[in-house]
Specification:
There is one protein chain. By secondary structure, the protein is of the alpha/beta class. It has a single domain, classed as 3-Layer(aba) Sandwich (Rossmann fold). Helix content is 45%, strand content 18%. The protein is built from twelve helices and eight strands. An eight-stranded mixed beta sheet has the order 1-2-4-3-5-6-7-8, with helices on both faces. The longest helix is centred in the middle third of the chain and has 16 residues. It is globular. GO terms for molecular function: hydrolase activity. This is Alpha/beta hydrolase. Keywords: Hydrolase.
């Protein structure tokens, strides 16, 4: 892992391979470790940058609230540090929200955009209430919250099929600092609607949705991609498709990037 300084905050990232740049943006309670398998597929053809977001992995916290725009500004600072002009963005879950914020703020720096198990819509009023409840739980017992939250991310069959990987995922999530968890929840709660980007942005776009995703329901994504110029792939499994559908995700993404990356 390498580091760079962003507004007196140390950010950790990896930078592997050569070619057009692909920027991997992980989700809530995740870190760049989640992209290891995909990186191994991509680094033979692309320059693959994977970053620990603010308050996640080994990167430090920046504030009490990490908005999607805060994270996007950090990503822009990173690609500027690396002297990259255009990147293909791949975002999982919260990483997709951040990728969309980046695409809105820095459209000239986007070559293509891939959202996996993510949404362009803001939180509903009910979801915002649930975020506040989650923050209360986190303040009382962050480990209990993380264990409960990670269990809900996977399809029921996955707990038997991928028990070791899910436990490793959970152990990595447990390292997320309390401030980082709360800052991300607060940031996701106030994110804005970016569905217009699916319709009016000029670069190629791909959305990958899972049949049994309880966090980002498939029907919601179907509604968002209707009449939008977006490639759309539906795969089996739950929310963390990089674990449950590792090979399929790699095939879909490499195929898309070969045409558009």
């Amino acid at each position: 892992m390498k580091t760079f300084n962003y507004k007196n905050t140390t950010i950790h990232y990896s930078d592997l391979g050569k070619g057009n740049a692909v920027l991997l943006v992980h989700g809530f309670l995740e870190d760049s470790f989640m992209w290891n398998d995909l990186t191994s597929h991509l680094k033979t053809r692309y320059r693959v940058i994977s970053v620990d977001l603010l308050g996640h992995g080994k990167s430090e916290c920046y504030g009490y609230v990490h908005t999607m725009e805060d994270q996007a500004d950090m990503l822009f600072a990173l690609i500027s540090e690396l002297r990259l002009r255009k990147v293909s963005l791949i975002g999982h879950s919260m990483g997709g929200y951040i990728a969309l914020a980046f695409a809105e703020l820095y459209p000239d720096n986007v070559r293509s955009l891939i959202l996996s198990n993510s949404s362009a819509q803001p939180d509903s009023d009910e979801r915002k209430i649930n975020r506040d409840r989650a923050i209360d739980v986190v303040k009382k017992n962050s480990n209990a919250f993380i264990r409960m939250a990670t269990q809900n991310l996977f399809d029921k069959d996955a707990h038997n099929l991928f028990a070791d990987k899910i436990e490793a995922f959970t152990q990595q999530a447990l390292k997320t600092p309390l401030q980082g968890i709360i800052a991300a929840l607060e940031g996701m709660k106030i994110r804005i609607d970016r569905e217009a980007l699916l319709h009016f942005s000029p670069y190629p776009k791909l959305i990958i949705a899972s049949e049994n995703d309880t966090i980002i329901p498939l029907d919601d994504i179907k509604n968002q991609v209707a009449d939008a110029e977006v490639s759309f792939e539906i795969i089996p499994g739950g929310h963390v498709s990089t674990i449950e559908q590792e090979a399929k995700i790699a095939t879909i993404i490499t195929s898309f990037l070969k045409k558009n990356g």
